[in-house]
Amino acid sequence: MRTLFLPQHQSPSTLKGISVNLTSMAETNKAAVEVFEGDDLAVALAKYVADLSNKFTSERGAFTVCLSGGSMMENLRKLPEPPYLDSLEWSKWHVFWVDDRVVPKTREDSDYKLALDGFLCKVPIPMDNVHAINETLSPEGAADDYERRIKELVDKNVITLSPTSGFPKFDLILLGMGPDGHVASLFPGRPQVQENKRWVTFIKDSPKPPPERITLTFPVINACAYAALVVTGKNEADAVQSALGKSENLVKLPVAMVSPSEGELKWFLDKDAASKL
Question: The whole model's pTM is what?
Answer without folding.
Answer: 0.90
